[in-house]
Amino acid sequence: MSTFYFIAFLSIFFSILVITAKNPVHSILYLILTFFTFTIHYILLNAQFLAIVNFIVYMGAILVLFLYTLMLINLNKDSEPVKPFMVKVAGVFGGGILAVALASSLKLVAQSNPVVLQNPELGLVKNLGKVLFNEFLLPFEVSSVLLLSAMVGAVLLATKDPKTAA
Amino acid sequence: MESLTNTIHAVPLNHYILLSAIIFSIGVIGVLIRRNAIVIFMSVELMLNAVNLLLTAFSVYRGDATGQVFVFFIMALAAAEVAIGLAIIVMIYRNTNSIDINVLNRLKW
């Protein structure tokens, strides 16, 4: 039980560091640590498939993509734009209001049963594969079209326009 | 395995909701206070992940595998979204030589 609270504290701590770090490269490294704590959360919930997918897709693919883009863009630290102080205070205030609203609406629900894993097989690959390929076969196939269109779109957007480049 | 699943037995569902709400709010604050387009994009990823964690917690709570399948689809969607978004950011950088979002205030509608 205390493992959850320790990991939850680490998640919040690292995610605060993500948005406050001055250097964008440090932000990405802290984001990797945040996603690692999320992987531990999934393992604690016995969602093993999601833990592995989170590890491979988020930490392996998405964040490498972020780092690569940042290195291609080659930012200087002194060109890092900073918002005015009052805008920052207003942003933190607005986000805090959102957190308080969510937490207080949670209090109205007043349902705090413990999370109990009834079926230990729930998050395993075998069970999820059966659900995915029976009930969700059509969305699964459509998502392949989505990934293909994303690939085509990324290539189309990132290549230089021959008319303007010349 | 048994000892691992026993560790969550005493965690109330409310605490998972609270954790996800806090991390979602941190993502919102990150979008509001930063001007670097890549950091804003990372805050959006943070929000997506908070929702993913909550969906998984509800899925375990209800004993229904559908929530975890939804998380799987959200992850596929996030991969596509990141590829497109970073391509757009690279294109913006090529045109304006910065990734400051205030450069884009000439966009209408």
Verbal overview:
The complex is a heterodimer of chains A (166) and B (109). Chain A is mainly alpha-helical and 166 residues long. Chain A folds into 2 domains: 1-76, NADH-ubiquinone/plastoquinone oxidoreductase chain 6, subunit NuoJ (Four Helix Bundle (Hemerythrin (Met), subunit A), Up-down Bundle); 121-161. Chain A has helices at residues 2-20, 24-44, 48-73, 85-109, 125-134, 137-158, 162-165. The N and C termini of chain A lie far apart (62 Å). Chain B has one domain: Helix Hairpins. Chain B has helices spanning 2-6, 13-33, 37-62, 66-96. Chain B contains 4 helices and no strands. In chain B, helix 2 (13-33) runs antiparallel to helix 3 and helix 3 packs antiparallel against helix 4 (66-96). Chain B is elongated. By secondary structure, chain B is mainly α. Classes of the chains: A mainly alpha (166), B mainly alpha (109). The interface between A and B is large, with 90 and 77 residues.
CATH topology of the largest domain in chain A: Four Helix Bundle (Hemerythrin (Met), subunit A)
Task: Summarize the main sheet of chain A.
Answer: none
Roughly how much helix do the residues of chain A carry, as a percent range? over 70%
What is the number of domains of chain B?
A: 1
Assembly classification: heterodimer
| CATH-derived topology of chain B | Helix Hairpins
Helicity level of chain B: over 70%
Q: How many strands appear in the DSSP assignment of chain B?
A: 0
Uncertain spans of chain B = none
**Between the first and last Cα atoms of chain B, what is the distance in angstroms?**
53 Å
CATH hierarchy class name of the largest domain in chain A: Mainly Alpha
The proportion of strand residues of chain B reads under 5%
Strand segment count of chain A? 0
Low-confidence stretches of chain A: none
Q: Structural class from helices and strands of chain A? A: mainly alpha
Q: Please give the count of helices of chain B.
A: 4
The figure for the number of domains of chain A is 2
- Cα radius of gyration of chain A in angstroms: 21 Å
Order of helices and strands of chain B: HHHH
Q: What is the average per-residue confidence, as pLDDT of chain B, rounded to a whole number?
A: 85
Major sheet details of chain B: none
